[in-house]
């Protein structure tokens, strides 16, 4: 299938700002393939982000876009969806923007199960703001604010989303580029709050400090740690140690927030008559 990448790219905005070897461009290309596969209309598609390297993505996309305050993508996107429930609302951002300063908004969007898709690009670091450690930086890894190693345990974003109430949760990697669009397609088609975590890399602020010799080495790490859900079913706990599951991790049909809210309004209007 030939994809119309140019159709979804805003004229005059390229080249992008991402560093060589950054996985965010791979994710954007996967998102474009998903939008093209679903034949969504630009005027009915809103892409919302906060602040950070990953949050620059909407600036390149030719549809309805919002580049908002740091960590507030889920709050702004909720407003869009509540005002225009017919819109296809997609959030994108990094692990810091989504699970640190935006963590509160993230878990409550999951809890409400509002019909939106959140693509979280997890490169385990604050890239744009100076290489500080994030809630997803591995224990022991170095960052500008943890030069002797990070003492904190990291979030598992997928488990966090499931625990908070998201009804669709999936994970992919920038190495497995051909899987990204398929996961996003399924997430958008799902009625409810969908989270797609994409593991990618920041060679500039994470790779250099943690002694990765090349982008290829970082990409190979993603290849080596990823285990598809079906393959994991045949593996024992020892074999799964140090691995991350990829694919659709959780899916449940349950009431969607906009519909629930509409029913409340109708009951209130009925009581007032």
TrEMBL record:
- Keyword check for Oxidoreductase: yes
Q: The organism sits in which domain of life?
A: Bacteria
- Tell me what this protein is called: 2-oxoacid:ferredoxin oxidoreductase subunit beta
Q: Where is the Thiamine pyrophosphate enzyme TPP-binding domain?
A: 51-198
Keyword terms: Oxidoreductase
What InterPro entries would the database entry show? Answer: 2-oxoacid:Fd_oxidoreductase (IPR051457), THDP-binding (IPR029061), TPP_enzyme_TPP-bd (IPR011766)
